[in-house]
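Running this now, will post back.
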Amino acid sequence: MLTPTRKFFLLVEALVCFAPLAFTLFFGVLIFPIWTGMLFAYSVGLVNPEPEGLGMPWTVIWPMALVICGVIGLLGLARVLGILLSGNPNPRWPVLTMVLVALGALAVIVFDMYLTPNPIDHPIQFFVLFALPLGGTVHFTYLVRDAVLRPIMVAFTRTSDHNVSERSRDE
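Update: finished.
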C-alpha cells in the first residue's frame, strides 16, 4: 500500500513523463477526422496523390495507427495508475493491462522513429517524447509487476506445465 506522499509523487512522475506526449497526442486526436476524410477521399477516387509523390494511404494510415495506439497506451497508463493508487493486489484482466501498455510503448517507439529518425539532431525532442515516456513505462510496469505480471506468468507456467505433463503421459 502506498502512502499519500508516494501516491502524489507517482502522479507527478506520470505527469512529467507522459504530459508532453499526451499533449502531442491531443493534436493527433484533433487531426484524426481530417485524416479520415483524406483517406475516404483517396478511397473513392476524389484525390490522386501520386503527382506530388505523397504516397497517400500510408502517409495517413501511419499517423492514424499511431494515434489509436497512443490513446490505447494512455488507457493502459490510466489502468496501471489505478491499480497502483488503489492498492488492489488482484486486478481484473492483467493480460489486457499489459497489452494496453505494450501498444502504448509500441506507439512511442514508432512515433519517435517516424518523427526523429536521427535523435542526435534533436536531443531534447528525443528525451521528452521518447526517453521519458519509455522510462515511465518501464518504471510503472516494474511497480505493478506483482499485481499484473505475476498472474500472467503463473498462468503461462501452469499452461506449459500442463502441456508437458500431457506429452509425457502420451509417451
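Residues 4-43 form the longest helix (40 residues). More later if anyone needs it.
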